[in-house]
Specification:
- The structure is a single chain.
- With 576 residues, the chain is an alpha/beta fold.
- It has three domains: 16-193, Rossmann fold; 208-361, Rossmann fold (3-Layer(aba) Sandwich); 376-552, Rossmann fold (3-Layer(aba) Sandwich).
- It is 41% helix and 16% strand.
- The protein contains 23 helices and 19 strands.
- The strands form four sheets. A six-stranded parallel beta sheet has the order 3-2-4-5-7-6, sandwiched between helices. A six-stranded parallel beta sheet has the order 15-14-16-17-19-18, with helices on both faces.
- α5 links the parallel β4 (82-86) and β5 (109-115).
- It is globular, with a radius of gyration of 26 Å.
- The protein binds adenosine-5'-diphosphate and magnesium ion (MG).
- Adenosine-5'-diphosphate binds at residues 105-106, 168-169, 229-231, 234-235, 255, 257-258, 288-290, 292, 294, 314-316, 319, 333-334, 431.
Length: 576
């Protein structure tokens, strides 16, 4: 007894300790989350250093929004939550845009932000970067948590992971006050407090009756159509989706980020007959796609007058009937649902009426033939079709490359023109149709897949994340950026008639974005013809060197807001 009492202080001195910093790192590692996208600063600078020292990959960006977009798309590509790490208040707010974007797009992501002292923040006493971040984040993501004690880090990280990836995936906020990082606890207790999340996104098996109902409706169709959305691409059930579509014989239409799930050149692909199939179909099966604005809410002119029945396969029960009646809802994860549909089809599943499939094919072939000569033009200055024709053939020759795409005309035309051949190779602006995802997505695509990335960017869109070319050079990533430089937003030709300031939609004429890349040691090329563009992109894809090609496009070539000019409000007043 007496002896033990004497030894105690010595034992305490030898007690192995851990702290908040290390527990967070260990919790992430334990759950296989080994890449962090972020921007260092108070109070997370040391955390970044330690995480790097512990073997995590920590990629430092120039702006949190871009780090956030990187994390969001990493989540889409990997089915694991992408991690974004930011400082408090302003850094957190910059990252929040991406968190809301991830939630809207159903990408799993965790935004981890350091925050200021709770006691000071809650009394609003004016702390450094004071903000009640948890309260702000709650309205913009799927779930938000704050961890106050080191002993709760394991649970906090586990809850964040589960919330991000289970059910409909989305963004999660994890608030870590500065004090937490330095909190010390017994190392053994700390290890025991960590949670390895088992089966984070459990299969959700659809009800057999819902499968039978869906197949009955599909079988009754005269003019069926399958629409594949990015939820289907996310699910990574590629073989099952392909087998189901092929066994059904039904024409399919890929939403933009589902392109390549089956090749755009597949005989059943109706991509080039989009307006016809939306208008004329009688039964539409949605697989991981929502009837939101991108599908005109399932009604109106786009969908024609013929009555339609909708079947919808989705993990989120609330999605059913969101815009129109769904006669056959199938709720479950896409892998399980599509497999159940396949299993439910008898061996002699009838092909859809030949009249319908032939009509779709004819329309598609007509449209493809009409487009072909425009894509081969060698005009100088380049127009969109000449430049995109080149990029289209490059992707055909390099189907493993990842295409990142944003802009207005650059987005709308590239989506239609560039065929994709493999799943999850096209990463674009997603549900909001936002600008600014470009460099963040390009970086994460290169980091997560190791494949070459081709980022096709409008000059305006690129501006939102352009400083990240330094990040691309710093990490020496195989990213080739092609800027469709038409001197402005939509077009570079607007004139301000009221004064000497430039018009609101134009940029510096003849700007040389390629010089930005050269400033950081990458390759810059100014391309003025389709031939020059082709040479430069191929060289970049072969070398894997960070490259930026300034593709000079006719400033008069674009149209207002690309394909969605109709969304601009119109003044009722007569133009003077
Ligand atoms: P798109 O823009 O391509 O039409 P959306 O983002 O609108 O795609 O829709 C994706 C849908 O996919 C969402 O409704 C989401 O709930 C669903 N989803 C995402 N992941 C899965 C999954 N693993 N299983 C089933 N549905 C999913
Ligand atoms: Mg432009």
């Amino acid at each position: 007894m007496a002896e033990a009492a004497v030894k105690q202080p010595e034992a305490a001195a030898e007690q192995e300790l851990t702290d908040g910093f290390h527990l967070i790192i260990d919790a992430l590692k334990l759950n296989g989350l080994t890449t962090i996208y972020g921007v260092p600063g108070i109070p997370i600078t040391d955390f970044g250093r330690m995480a790097q020292a512990e073997g995590l990959r920590v990629l430092s960006f120039r702006h949190e929004q871009n780090a956030g977009y990187a994390a969001a798309i990493a989540g889409f590509l990997t089915k694991k939550p992408g991690i974004c790490l930011t400082v408090s208040a302003p850094g957190f707010l910059n990252g929040l845009t991406a968190l809301a974007h991830a939630t809207t797009n159903c990408y799993p992501m965790i935004l981890i932000s350091g925050s200021s002292e709770r006691e000071v923040v809650d009394l609003q006493q004016g702390d450094y970067e004071e903000m009640d971040q948890l309260a702000v984040a709650k309205t913009m993501c799927k779930a938000a948590y704050r961890v106050l004690h080191a002993a709760d880090i394991g649970i906090g990280v586990a809850r964040a992971i589960r919330s991000a990836v289970s059910g409909r995936p989305g963004g999660v906020y994890l608030d870590l006050p500065a004090k937490l990082f330095g909190q010390v606890m017994d190392a053994e207790k700390g290890r025991k407090s960590l949670v390895k999340v088992i089966d984070a996104a459990p299969a959700q098996i659809p009800a057999p009756a819902s499968i039978k109902r869906a197949l009955d409706v599909l079988k009754s169709a005269k003019k069926p159509l399958i629409i594949l959305g990015k939820g289907a691409a996310y699910a990574q059930a590629d073989e099952a989706v392909k087998a189901f579509v092929e066994k059904s014989g039904v024409p399919f239409l890929p939403m933009s980020m589902a392109k390549g799930l089956l090749p755009d050149t597949h005989p059943q692909c109706a991509g080039a007959a989009r307006s016809t199939v939306l208008k004329d179909s009688d039964v539409v099966m949605l697989i991981g796609a929502r009837l939101n604005w991108l599908l005109s809410h399932g009604k109106g002119k786009t969908w024609g007058d013929a009555p339609k029945k909708f079947i919808q396969v989705d993990i989120e029960p609330k999605e059913m009937d969101s815009n129109v009646e769904i006669v056959a809802p199938v709720v479950g994860d896409i892998g399980s649902c599509v497999q159940a549909l396949l299993d439910g089809m008898d061996a002699k599943w009838p092909a859809p009426p030949a009249e319908w499939t032939a009509a779709v094919k004819t329309k598609r072939d007509e449209n493809v033939a009409k487009m072909a000569p425009r894509l081969r033009n060698n005009n100088v200055p380049m127009d969109y079709h000449g430049a995109l024709g080149v990029l289209r053939s490059i992707i055909a020759e390099r189907p493993d490359a990842i295409l990142v795409n944003e802009g207005a005309n650059t987005l709308d035309l590239a989506r239609g023109i560039i065929d994709m051949y493999k799943p999850r190779k096209r990463l674009d602006v997603g549900t909001w149709g936002i600008m600014g995802i470009g460099m963040g997505q390009a970086i994460a695509a290169a980091v997560e897949t190791g494949k070459p990335v081709l980022a096709v960017e409008g000059d305006s869109a690129f501006g939102f994340s352009g400083m990240e070319v330094e990040t691309i050079c710093r990490y020496n990533l195989p990213v080739c950026i092609v800027i469709f430089n038409n001197d402005g937003i939509y077009r570079g030709t607007d004139v301000n008639k009221a004064g000497s300031d430039p018009a609101t939609t134009v940029f510096v004429k003849g700007a040389r974005y390629d010089k930005m890349m050269e400033a950081f040691g990458g390759v810059g090329v100014n391309a003025t013809s389709p031939d020059e563009l082709k040479r430069a992109v191929n060289a970049a894809m072969d070398s894997g060197k960070p490259t930026l090609i300034n593709a000079v496009i006719d400033p008069a070539a674009g149209s207002e807001s690309g394909r969605i000019g109709n969304l601009n409000p119109q003044s009722a007043l007569k133009k003077k």
